[in-house]
Structures are given as structure tokens and as C-alpha cells.
Write a structure and sequence with these properties.
Chain lengths: 273, 423, 281
């Protein structure tokens, strides 16, 4: 028994150590982004580098005062929110159908969903833009969100599919026998269990839309998203501004993930352990 | 959970309502130039503020820029009023551009040879020259003591440049010469407008001549002392400022940041000369109006505004691109303008000056024309393939391109009847 | 199963949507790859294959995916198990692990370039430790394997979180009783992981692998930031042909190749990690 206890203690140390190491691996590069964003331009281009920021806000201030950043931020939020809602509304039913039924055309559908992810979007932008200009979807948040939804939909379909597959059909059937309709059983029994999958899909949809730059640059002109507004020009800007701009772009996405993180845990597995 | 869904639905509703609201249309100026954020900002707040009307200046990567323009041309309607881009950006769009030969420019005189380039090989004026730059060299003053004896920095030869780079490498411990050979760098113009003319007096015809073999051999020598990170560089001002590179070649706008931030640390000077002369090439940006522009009168008004002397000077301040009209520069220009202006004057005024023109009449094959030079560079210099074999091979591609485009020779090659020959 | 039409009804919205916003533009571009002045042709594929950089681009793309995806899978699994074992701070640690999700490939390229560049953080650290005196040029064209390694690190750093989130979401569905039962029968932690967790996780693992592999074949921004033109990849060449060379036909041919490889690997995963119908148990 005491052997077991030492084993456990050692295990705990190992777990703690690994977690710390992985946190350092993830946060290290983020810290460098932070460091360069809050340092003076001469420190960013200088050598050797300093390891603490000089809290020089020149570069960040440039972006805050950059004409049009606020409205671009608002456009980005609109597009990302629409993308998130659309991809879940369209994707989750499809994921459910794929996991619960055998039917003709199932694999065809799956391949089609994946093709949208496997084909380079910048090539599709031209025919899409022509179509948009003709039907009047051009330069609207909804139009861009529809394109971003094609990118996020494979995530939503496949993730919800894999989660629904993990939920025993018997659970649903038990609810039916207790007098629930199919819809009720779904809402009361299945939905709480797939919430993590829906959250994961939502995160992906939001982040994909937030970071997508090519379609955004082509399909919005008067209503640019933040990414289209800043990122197309960042790669050729002076280094300090690249970092500050990168920081401005990353921050909202991180806040979003922070807000929804707890929904990633399901009700009966990890969460109640 | 329910609240999450309700929240989502409310958000969706709000967004849809807002999406319906249309903003009033500004004059949309769709450009590939002044892309670095500081320049974009300066275009908006300095250069365009004097225009009578609101301008929405959007700077893009060439990819989205071109895709959007093509989409509007295909759809037959659009929102872009004025296009801004480099000569090469327009070459494949010729058919969709309005003829601007009758445009009222308010009496300013635009450099006639640039105007001719703006015809893109057609009879119509496809674009109006907007601004110009050229390639020069900039060195950190720390590099000057390593100049080979007897070398005049304002009249360097390629041999002296190689000796200088060698000195720097050997005496400082690492290569300090840099070229913009990255994916977004403009190395092809160095090859077309500087190296080739300087050694062969030609850009196309003598592509695989013995003189060209010498030129590539020299570049190979130079490359030995070139910072190998050059294959990632696009804007030489960055490695100059960071100290990774002490001597660099690039176009004036892409060196300006170094000259402006630390004017006392850097010097600008002309590109070197070879046996055939001091080859150099301009960079020209132009303004065009797509046939799909919704308000052509406003677009023409904007172009006229962009060509006025005061706007041209403001543009120079904002982008480090020089005017295309005759204008006297005030004395309070930024250090980069003064330094590079002096270097350009020395270069074009040199006895052995050999100006080369931008490729003409290639249409949408302009990109492939550049690729011949880039491929040749990558195969010979980076891949270490035998010079003669690569030149013979690529000459075949080049010959086919010239025939397909049916483009006659341009300077420094002698005029030709029919397609420019590749001997 | 009760109503036979139900699955089709559930798929209908997504199908209509994809038909309009994906299949319609896709068929136009796919046609570009096969059409020439004289009708259907394979000449664009010939142009592509004969392009001197094509073999290198294909090889680099495949090698990167092969090098990156298995490592990411292992890391994501390890991270998910670690998170599930934590007694406190689980929320926070999971959040930290998912941070790279919010970072675009362009931004990741920027950050890792700042590390590896000649006057970057790696050289600064080595300099401070006295290992080097003059900054080392890491990303030069002669040292392709360093560029490759840097791209690998950047990809692993940025995109492991994608797999992690999918796996964590799936892990939550595994009833804890299963693990406890196995423990009662004397199974050690490794055995429990292999015999209980991994099989039950198969649907999520399959999804994570498919999505991640497809994305790996589209790697581009980090390669461009770290390697310039030194490490050609298929996606980069697609852009190059479309926008620099303005040859939409050959660009479309490149895109078709990316698509074909992706679909090929997807089918492989679907076969290898077959998910039993209806339930994962």
C-alpha cells in the first residue's frame, strides 16, 4: 500500500512537471510576441534582445489611433459571430445524421464536406466574388460569413459527428421509452453531452473567421474586417509594427476562447471526476 | 446552456439588422502601393486629405488586389473607382482599363517615356504614371573602412563591390552584403535592369551570350559573400536596421526606413557598373480606371488630384516614391529623400549610365518573364547548376515567351521588327 | 430507425449551402485545370509536373505532414490526459494549452521568425550563455533542414491545440466508471489508457487526424515567413502560379493535387480508424 502511495506521489510530480513544461512551451512564444509589442522600436530591431519589455507603447498606440480600426474590429466581430452561428446551425444536424443513420450517399457527403477544407480558398475567391457582385452579397458581413462558414463547416460537422458517435443510442432510446419525443430526448439527454463539441466547433468557427485574410480582403472593400484591414499590410511593415499589429489581432481571439473555455468539458466525464 | 443559445440568437439578430445598413460610398482607391501600415496611414491622412471628396484608400497584397479587380471586370460592375499599382500589376488587366488619353490633368507635364509605358503596348492610355522609384545601394557607415583601396563609393564597379563584400565577410566574421531575394523581394529587377545591362548591354537578346555567362559568374562570386538569409529578405531596410546586413541593394522606398530612422548611420550611393555600363531601371507605379468604375468623373478627378505638384510632393513624403512630373522639391524633405535623391542623380548622371526600361508589351506574360530570371538565379546561384546549361535551357523559355507575346525589344536592347529575338 | 427521410432532412441545409458556396465555385476552378484552347487537356498538369520546383514542393509538403502530424497527435493526447488528471486549475491549464488556437499562421510565422532570425531571440539566448560570439545564421538557404525544423516547431506549436480541443471534447464523453472498473481489475495507467481511453476515443481521434492532416497539406504562411523561397510547398506554388505568374490553369492543377492528396489520406484514416455505427461502445 505504501509502495502505491509513493508511486502516486511520484505520478503527481510527473504530472505537475509535464504540465509546467507544456505551459512554458505554449506561453514562451506568446511572451515573445508580448515582449516585442511592448518594447521600443529600437529594442525590437536591436541585438542582443532584452528579456523584459521596456513598456514603450509607441507601436501599439499607432494601431489604436489607426484610422478605421474600431469599425474594422466591429466588422470582424459581426462576421465571426455569424460564421459561428451558421456553422453550428448547419453543421450539428448533419453531424447527428452521420452518426445515427446509415443511408446512401453518406460517404459522398463526408467527402464533400472535407473537400471544402482541402481546396485552397484563394482560388475560389474569384468565382465567389463574381457571384457576390452580381447578387449583391458583396461587401456585406453576411456574405463574408457565408464564405467563412464553408471553412468552418467541416469542423462543425465532423466534431459533432464524433461526439454523437460517442453517445450510446441506448441513452436516447431510454429517454424515448420514458415518454420523451425524439426532439425532447435530444434536447434533454443528448444536447448536454455534445455541448463540448458544439463549443469546440464554435471556437474553431470564430477563430477561423477571425484569422481568415484572403477572402476578407477580396470580398469586403468598404467594410473591411480587422484582419483584412491590418494583416495584408503587416508583412511588409517595419518589424515593431508587425508585432504590435499581431498582438492587436490575437488579443480578441484569446478573450473569446477564455470566455467559452468551460463549455469544453462534458457533464459526465472529466467534469464530475 | 440555454442562455448561451439565446445569447447566440440575439447576437445573430443584431448582426443581421446592422448588416443591412449601407454606408455611403466613398471613392474607392484600390492599390498595391503604400502597403506598409505607416505609409497607408500617411496616404490617408496626408496625401488624400486635400481631395474634394472622401477617398477610401485600400492597400492590398497583389493576390487579393488582382482577384478583386478580375472579379469586378468579370461581373461587369464594381465599386473600385481608381486602381493604383506597379507597371507590372496592370499588364494583364489591359482590356478592362479605360482609355485615359483624354483625361484632364490640369496642365501638369508627365514624363513622356513613362506615359508611353502606360499604354501597355496598345494605342490607348491604359494608366497614367503616378510615381517612380529606382534601385540604389545603401551602406552602414561601419562598412566604409572595408572598401577596397582606390574604390570611389559613388562610382563602384561590380568587381569592387565583390571585393568589398569579401573584405567585410572575412574581417567581420560573417557576410554583410544583402540582396532582396525573398518571395516578396524584387530581385528580378536587379537581374533584368542592373546585372544584365551592366555586363551585356542587353536584357533579352543576349540572355545566353558569353557576356551573360560572365555576369552570372560574377554574381556567383558576390553571392559567396552575401548573407544567406537574403533568400528571405523583401525590404532591405530591416536587415540594415538590425545590423544583419551592412551593404544592401533595393529600391528607394524599401530602403527609406533605414535612412529616416538613423540618417547619420547610413549612406546611399549609386548601383555599380559593369563592362557595358552602369545599368539601372526605374520602378513606375500608375493610376488607372477600370471600365466598371461606378463614377468615372470622380475617378478622373482623383487622378488629376494625384498628379498635382503638391500632391506629388506629399506622396514622396509618404511613400518615398518620387514625382513623375517636373517639380521643385522643398528643402524640408525627409532624410531618405535627400540621400536617395542625391544617389539617383549621381547614378543617372554618370558618364557610363545605361538606363533600362521596364518590360513592355508582354501582357499577362509579365509574371512569367520575371520568373525566367528568378528561376535562372535560383538554379545557378542557389542550386549550383552549370551556368551555360541553365542559360540555354531558360533561353528557350524566354524565346517562347517573347514569340507568344510578339513583343518587340525595349531599351537597352536595340528595337526589333517583330518579337524580340533571344540569340 | 423510424423515419427514413430524417437523415436527408438533417443533411439538406448543409448540402444546399455547400452546393452554392463551395461546389459552384469549385467546379469552375476545377474546370480551369482541365480546359485549354482546344477543349479538355492535361497540358496544365504537364506544365506543373515539369516545373523544376514541383518535385521539391510535393516532397516538402508530404514530409512536413508526416513529420508534424504524428508528433502533434501524441502531444495532444498527452496534454488531454494530463488535463483530465488535474484536480485543480483544470480550466486554466486547458485555456493555456488552447491559446495557440487564436493565433493565425501568419502571426505564428512572425513569432517564430523572431526567434530564429539572425538577430533574434535564439541567438540572443545563445549569446547571453556564451555559446556563440557572433550571431549564427539559422535560416540560410544552405541549411534547409534547420528551416524545415523551424517550420515543424512553428506548426507543432500553433496547431496542436486544434487536435487537443477535439480530443478533450471527446474524452469528456468517456464515463469515468469504465476507467474505475479497469482499475479494479488491476489495470495500470498505461493499460487503462490503451485499452479503455484510446478505443473509446476513436471517433474524436479520427476527426482530429483528418482535419489536422488536411490542414497540414495547406501549410504555407509559416513556410514563407521562415524559409522564404527555400522550402517550396504545394500551397505556396499554387499562389505563385495564380498571382505572380497569373496562370490560373496551372494554379488550379496544383490545387487539384492538394485536394487529391487530402482526400487520399482522409480515406485512409476512415478505413484505419473505422467508427462503428451508432455508438462508440
Amino acid at each position: 500500500m505504501s509502495d502505491n502511495a509513493t508511486f502516486r506521489r511520484r505520478g503527481r510530480w510527473l504530472t505537475g512537471g509535464s504540465v509546467l513544461l507544456l505551459c512554458a512551451w505554449v506561453l514562451g512564444p506568446i511572451y515573445l510576441l508580448f515582449l516585442n509589442s511592448f518594447s521600443s522600436p529600437s529594442a525590437v530591431t536591436g541585438f542582443p534582445k532584452h528579456w523584459l519589455p521596456s513598456f514603450n507603447l509607441d507601436s501599439l498606440q499607432f494601431f489604436i489611433e489607426f484610422q478605421g480600426v474600431a469599425s474594422a474590429l466591429w466588422n470582424s466581430i459581426q462576421v465571426a459571430t455569424l460564421t459561428m452561428v451558421l456553422s453550428i446551425v448547419l453543421g450539428a444536424p448533419a453531424g447527428y445524421a452521420l452518426s445515427r443513420f446509415e443511408f446512401r450517399g453518406k460517404s459522398l457527403f463526408r467527402i464533400m464536406v472535407l473537400m471544402t477544407r482541402a481546396f485552397p480558398l484563394p482560388l475560389l475567391a474569384l468565382p465567389l466574388a463574381v457571384m457576390y457582385i452580381r447578387v449583391g452579397l458583396d461587401d456585406t458581413p453576411l456574405g463574408l460569413a457565408l464564405v467563412h462558414t464553408t471553412l468552418a463547416l467541416p469542423f462543425a460537422v465532423l466534431i459533432t459527428f464524433s461526439l454523437f458517435s460517442g453517445i450510446p443510442v441506448e441513452l436516447e432510446e431510454a429517454a424515448w421509452t420514458m415518454g420523451c419525443t425524439r426532439a425532447q430526448a435530444f434536447r434533454k439527454v443528448v444536447l448536454p453531452l455534445v455541448m463540448p463539441g458544439i463549443t469546440a466547433s464554435a471556437i474553431f468557427a470564430f477563430v477561423i473567421s477571425w484569422n481568415e485574410v484572403f477572402a476578407a480582403s477580396v470580398l469586403t472593400v468598404q467594410h473591411r474586417t480587422l484582419t483584412a484591414f491590418l494583416l495584408t499590410s503587416l508583412d511588409v511593415s517595419p518589424l515593431p509594427l508587425k508585432f504590435a499589429g499581431g498582438f492587436v489581432l490575437v488579443l480578441p481571439a484569446l478573450i473569446f476562447i477564455f470566455l467559452v473555455r468551460k463549455y469544453l468539458f462534458a457533464m459526465w466525464g472529466i467534469a464530475n471526476r | 446552456m440555454k442562455t448561451t443559445f439565446r445569447g447566440l440568437c440575439t447576437a445573430l439578430g443584431a448582426v443581421l439588422v446592422l448588416a443591412g445598413a449601407q454606408a455611403k460610398a466613398d471613392v474607392l482607391f484600390w492599390s498595391t502601393q503604400a502597403k506598409p501600415v505607416e505609409e497607408t496611414q500617411a496616404m490617408r491622412s496626408e496625401v488624400l486629405k486635400g481631395f474634394d471628396g472622401k477617398v477610401n484608400y485600400q492597400a492590398n497584397d497583389p493576390g487579393p488586389w488582382l482577384t478583386r479587380v478580375q472579379a469586378e471586370m468579370k461581373a461587369g460592375k464594381g465599386s473600385i473607382q481608381v486602381l493604383g499599382g506597379l507597371h507590372g500589376d496592370f499588364t494583364s488587366l489591359s482590356d478592362g482599363l479605360m482609355d485615359l488619353s483624354k483625361i484632364d490633368l490640369g496642365g501638369v507635364k508627365v514624363n513622356p517615356s513613362f506615359m508611353k509605358l502606360g499604354k501597355l503596348g496598345s494605342k490607348e492610355q491604359k494608366y497614367i504614371p503616378w510615381m517612380q522609384a529606382t534601385y540604389i545601394m545603401v551602406a552602414n557607415k561601419k562598412a566604409l573602412p572595408y572598401l577596397p583601396t582606390g574604390a570611389d563609393i559613388n562610382a563602384l564597379t561590380y568587381d569592387q563591390l565583390i571585393a568589398w563584400a569579401k573584405n567585410l565577410d572575412e574581417k567581420t566574421g560573417s557576410p554583410k552584403f544583402g540582396l532582396p531575394a525573398g518571395p516578396k523581394g524584387l530581385l528580378h529587377r536587379f537581374l533584368q535592369g542592373y546585372l544584365y545591362p551592366s555586363y551585356t548591354g542587353s536584357m533579352v537578346t543576349k540572355f545566353r551570350s558569353p557576356e551573360a555567362v560572365t555576369a552570372w559568374q560574377k554574381l556567383k562570386d558576390l553571392w559567396k559573400y552575401t548573407n544567406p538569409a537574403s533568400t528571405g529578405y523583401a525590404f532591405m531596410q530591416e536587415p540594415l536596421l538590425s545590423g544583419a546586413v551592412w551593404v544592401a541593394f533595393d529600391h528607394t522606398a524599401r530602403l527609406a526606413d533605414a535612412l529616416n530612422k538613423r540618417p547619420n548611420d547610413f549612406v546611399a550611393f549609386p548601383a555599380p557598373a559593369g563592362p557595358a555600363g552602369r545599368g539601372f531601371m526605374p520602378v513606375i507605379a500608375g493610376l488607372a480606371i477600370p471600365k466598371t468604375a461606378p463614377d468615372k468623373a470622380a475617378a478622373e478627378k482623383l487622378i488629376k488630384y494625384m498628379l498635382q505638384p503638391s500632391t506629388q510632393i506629399a506622396t514622396l513624403r509618404a511613400t518615398s516614391f518620387f514625382p513623375v512630373i517636373d517639380v521643385n522639391l522643398p528643402n524640408d524633405m525627409p532624410p531618405s529623400v535627400k540621400a536617395s535623391g542625391a544617389a539617383i542623380a549621381k547614378m543617372s548622371g554618370a558618364k557610363d549610365a545605361l538606363p533600362a526600361l521596364l518590360p513592355m508589351g508582354l501582357g499577362d506574360l509579365g509574371g512569367k518573364f520575371n520568373q525566367v530570371y528568378i528561376d535562372t538565379f535560383q538554379r545557378i546561384i542557389l542550386g549550383g547548376q552549370p551556368i551555360k546549361r541553365v542559360l540555354d535551357d531558360e533561353a528557350g523559355t524566354l524565346r517562347a515567351l517573347m514569340k507568344k507575346a510578339d513583343a518587340p525589344c525595349w531599351a537597352p536592347d536595340a528595337p526589333s521588327k517583330g518579337a524580340c529575338p533571344v540569340n | 430507425m423510424p423515419s427514413r427521410g430524417l437523415p436527408y432532412l438533417l443533411l439538406l441545409p448543409a448540402t444546399v449551402f455547400l452546393a452554392v458556396f463551395f461546389l459552384y465555385p469549385f467546379t469552375q476552378i476545377a474546370w480551369e485545370a482541365f480546359s485549354g484552347p482546344g477543349g479538355v487537356t492535361l497540358s496544365h498538369f504537364a506544365t506543373m509536373v515539369n516545373y523544376w520546383k514541383f518535385p521539391a514542393a510535393l516532397e516538402n509538403t508530404l514530409l512536413l505532414a508526416v513529420a508534424v502530424v504524428p508528433l502533434q497527435t501524441a502531444m495532444a493526447l498527452a496534454m488531454a490526459v494530463l488535463v483530465s488528471k488535474l484536480e485543480k486549475g483544470r480550466d486554466l491549464i486547458l485555456y493555456i494549452f488552447t491559446i495557440p488556437l487564436g493565433i493565425s499562421d501568419l502571426a505564428a510565422g512572425l513569432i517564430w521568425f523572431a526567434i530564429f532570425q539572425q538577430t533574434g531571440f535564439l541567438n540572443s539566448a545563445l549569446h547571453a550563455l556564451g555559446v556563440v560570439h557572433t550571431p549564427v545564421i539559422w535560416l540560410g538557404y544552405q541549411s534547409k533542414w534547420v528551416i524545415f525544423l523551424a517550420v515543424m516547431l512553428a506548426e507543432i506549436w500553433r496547431a496542436t491545440a486544434i487536435m487537443l480541443v477535439i480530443i478533450v471534447a471527446g474524452m469528456g464523453l468517456i464515463p469515468k466508471e469504465y476507467g474505475e472498473a479497469a482499475e479494479v481489475f488491476g489495470a495500470g495507467p498505461w493499460q487503462r489508457f490503451r485499452r479503455v481511453t484510446l478505443p473509446l476515443l476513436r471517433p474524436s481521434l479520427q476527426t482530429a487526424l483528418i482535419l489536422r492532416t488536411i490542414l497540414a497539406f495547406e501549410v504555407f504562411a509559416e513556410v514563407a515567413a521562415l524559409g522564404g523561397t527555400n522550402l517550396p510547398v504545394l500551397m505556396g506554388e499554387t499562389f505563385h502560379w495564380q498571382f505572380d505568374l497569373q496562370d490560373g490553369h496551372t494554379a488550379a492543377a496544383f490545387a487539384i493535387v492538394i485536394l487529391a492528396i487530402s482526400i487520399g489520406f482522409t480515406l485512409l484514416y476512415l478505413r484505419l480508424l473505422r467508427v462503428p455505427k451508432g455508438a462508440g461502445i
